[in-house]
Amino acid sequence: GYYGYDHDDYQKTADWLLSQTKHRPQVAIICGSGLGMLADALKCQDAFHYTDIPGFPQSTVQGHAGRLVFGELKGKTCVCMQGRFHMYEGHSLCKTTFPVRVFKLLGVETLIVTNAAGSLADGLKPGDIMIIKDHVNFPGLGGFNPLNGPNDDKFGPRFPAMSACYNPGLRCLAMDIAKQQGVAELVQEGVYAAVGGPNFETIAEAKLMHRLGVDAVGMSTAPEVVVAVHCGLRVFGISLITNKAEAFSSPPNLLSARDTSRCRSPGI
Ligand SMILES: O=P(O)(O)O[C@H]1O[C@H](CO)[C@@H](O)[C@H]1O
Ligand SMILES: Nc1nc2[nH]cnc2c(=O)[nH]1
User: Fold this and answer.
1) Confidence check: pLDDT of 263 > 70
2) Protein residue whose Cα sits closest to atom 5 of ligand 1
3) 228 annotated as a binding-site residue
4) pTM for this one?
5) In which pathway does it act (predicted)?
6) FRET pair for 204, CA 20 to 30 Å: which of 111, 154, 162, 266?
């Protein structure tokens, strides 16, 4: 079509994959920056480089290998993206979310999204895991939405609800498992905000988001989740906190005029 992809484009890629592997995944996992090693844990793997998959976008970022890996994880058939697509790579949003609709056509029912994110919340430290309970899609609020253009009714409605994007049952289950595994102190629920990137936040931007109720910030995930929810996938999301976002790293940025020793690093 004139805007993005036709249903046939997704179908061709899905059909090609179905012809190349016997796996019929129920679960798709998008691995965030540095999290691609999860795919290495799949048993009975069939792996495809994005460059070899007809119609598939290509990865350009470090820490994103650019492979689609099918296999078994704890008895579930999964398909794992080792490397995702970001808007800042120059991809259109429908390109960054192309794989999600392909997963739908493969028969996937549940999408697990993961990402590396910066913390804006006092209680979230580098190394912690944040289960995403909701998101703020800043590019989306500004009109950068993968669902822009004519709606494809075969995937979902023109005006999809986003009020329960992150499946409450799966969130509950994840909290229970964290307790069972003895890692409950490392796992919390919170709100993820997607920004366009590729620059990290200014101090003022980080403070603004913190005041608006955002707990962690990154440059991905929300567009994929919007497309997944639109086509009826069940979504579970986690952020690995890799750093404190700029305003919340040391040294503290509340400067008193009396403190002349720190006047070379002004805060806002
Ligand atoms: O969201 P993922 O893909 O994990 O990557 C995150 O890490 C990168 C910045 O270091 C950005 O791409 C940000 O979005
Ligand atoms: N925007 C943004 N993305 C990130 N990805 C990992 N850390 C960060 C961060 O602090 N800010």
Assistant:
1) no
2) 33
3) no
4) 0.92
5) Purine metabolism; purine nucleoside salvage
6) 162
